Known about the structure:
The complex is a heterodimer of chains A (about 240) and B (about 270).
Chain A: E1 29-33, E2 41-47, E3 50-61, E4 74-81, H1 96-109, E5 121-131, H2 136-150, E6 160-167, E7 170-173, H3 177-182, E8 185-192, E9 197-207, H4 209-238
Parallel strand pairs in A: 4-5
Antiparallel strand pairs in A: 1-2, 2-3, 3-5, 6-7, 6-8, 8-9
Chain B: H1 5-19, E1 35-39, E2 47-53, E3 56-67, E4 78-85, H2 100-116, E5 125-127, E6 131-143, H3 148-161, E7 165-171, E8 174-183, E9 192-199, E10 202-205, H4 209-212, E11 217-223, E12 229-235, H5 242-264
Parallel strand pairs in B: 4-6
Antiparallel strand pairs in B: 1-2, 2-3, 3-6, 5-6, 7-8, 9-10, 9-11, 11-12
Helix pairs in contact in B: 2-3
Amino acid sequence: MGGRESTLVLLDKNGIRCDGRKIDEPRKIMIKAGVLKNADGSAYIEFGDNKIIAGVFGPRDVHPKHLSNTDTGILRCRYHMSPFSVTERKNPAPSRREIEISKVIKEALLPSLMLEKFPRTVVDVFIEVLQADGGSRCAAIDAASVALADAGIPMRDMVCACAAGKVADTIVLDVNNEEDQAGQADMPVGYMPNLNKVTLLQLDGVLTRDEYKKCIDTAIGGCKLVYQIQKKALTDKFFENGGNQ
Amino acid sequence: MTSSVLDQLKRKEIVDLLDQGKRIDGRAFDQSRPLSIETGVISKANGSARVRLGDTEIVTGIKIQPDKPFPDLGDKGIFICTAEILPLAHPDAEPGPPGEDVIELARVVDRGIRESGMIDMSKLVLEKDKSVIGIFADNSVVDHDGNLFDACSYATTAAILSCKIPKWEIKNAVPVLVEDHESSPPITTIPVSITMGRIGEHILVDPNAEEWECIDARITITTNSDGNICALQKGGKNGFTVDQLSKCADIAISAATKIRERLKQTKG
Lengths: 245, 268
């Protein structure tokens, strides 16, 4: 986004991106539900080179107690990157970036959960980024939403997330790490596909009014693709081999 | 926090008024609170501003000093933005390390300035990869009456516009201050953030503290002088439809014009 100079060709004359994708093609996405024994719900996602695991505990007692709410359950969310997840070792202490991302992920997931059914409790979502490759907050939401469903927490909808961005003056789906570094804009979007609501929206970089609209529509298109993969992860776990009993 | 009966009554009052097309303080839905900007209020800082947005008040100071560049950005100066809600600003504010709300606040203000390219960072290099000029913007919230995002953004922008950058020369690999050679900052555009809250179907510009308590979702849209969008942050416990997001963008672009004119006049 800083528009850093580089020799990388982000978009060739045939409309092919630096990793061989078309402009409306997401990276390879694989989600597996129920990967942890101890967590109440869990999911593992590979989104391009992102490798992220999400674990859900609860609804359970709130500690410290003063955080509890007599009207509704609360949601806590921790997004954390492993020190080995990026090129330069990351200090394991939570950074300001991770604290902000934890907050926006929490607010992206919250509208989908019926926590009012569980007053005085907490649902904890722990997200560990084992390997990061650009767009990790979207991949984290995709995994966390599957983990919440896997935990059996009553939900209004799934939350699926995917980014769109501007690279070489073109709106593209699912910005990867190189495109994020050298591109013009990155817009992560979280979306509830059945309620048609955007629950995460951020932007780094400059877009015109029309590009803004196009970017949101492109990202939502990606979210809908992710939604199918999320559903498959859950059917694979609960109905074995994708059957529809 | 538990919502008390009083909070629920307040919310009902606010929502009932909105359904009649009125806001609790009588403003139009797309109208910000009165904005006052005073610059040069802290003479020890290189730039400063005291901004009041309604009853929200921010004091922002800019300190400028030589620093090391970020490892991957050796040909750019650095910009760092922080925020603190002082304990005197609100009965619920407590001293201590910043919580997630304050970290988000500082990062949203930072993103608006940074992504708009307001300051031409390439002009702030003393010696490539070794020494650059650092601009530190520290926001102190002294009175909290809602929408700290816009108030801190305007205060930071005004403080930057009014700042003077001292001159350093590299001698024996160390930056040495050259007295009495201050210059204006390399400004390319003026970013303006507009924060909107959604209560039911209503979109409110610049919610005050009472409205803020009732918000279903909020969005901060920062635009540059060309009217393009350069930063976004959605927050709050619910979401927006695509149509609402379109409407918010239109509101943000038009509401920013007036505020940008105000900020332009603060050039130091």
